[in-house]
């Protein structure tokens, strides 16, 4: 993957920004929107949803992937994460594991912000040696 040449499809950026606007983050004030492109070409969205019991908070990336699974989609091309932070924000550890479950190791994970700056990682870069369904084959 050539990180310099990855262009985020405009529809994916719009979807991530729209999801960001729906984030429920009254405690952290850290709003996040995500949009993923499935291998069938469908765009799905997710936003973070906080809870007063902080451990029950669900991140935008996991909500996005769950939304896709509800629609019958289980294979993805890329995921885009939008925040209005100055520095690019990678997915948390739990999200990295869920992304590794559904995305190829070479799939791009792209963060961008309100200044249209972006950073790209592969799934493998975010979670090297991930535990995936392939690891269950010997059971």
UniProtKB/TrEMBL annotation:
Catalytic activity: cytidine + H2O + H(+) = uridine + NH4(+); 2'-deoxycytidine + H2O + H(+) = 2'-deoxyuridine + NH4(+)
Keyword Heme: no
Positions bound to substrate: 48-54
Entry annotated with the keyword Metal-binding: yes
Binding site for Zn(2+): 59, 92, 95
Molecular function per GO: cytidine deaminase activity; zinc ion binding
EC number, UniProt record: 3.5.4.5
One GO BP annotation of this record: nucleobase-containing small molecule metabolic process
Keywords: Hydrolase, Metal-binding, Zinc
Cofactor requirements of the protein: Zn(2+)
Highest taxon of source: Bacteria
SUPFAM superfamilies, A to Z: Cytidine deaminase-like
Gene3D superfamilies found in the cross-reference section: Cytidine Deaminase, domain 2
GO cellular component labels: cytosol
Function comment: This enzyme scavenges exogenous and endogenous cytidine and 2'-deoxycytidine for UMP synthesis.
Family: Belongs to the cytidine and deoxycytidylate deaminase family.
Protein name per UniProt: Cytidine deaminase
Organism: Colwellia hornerae
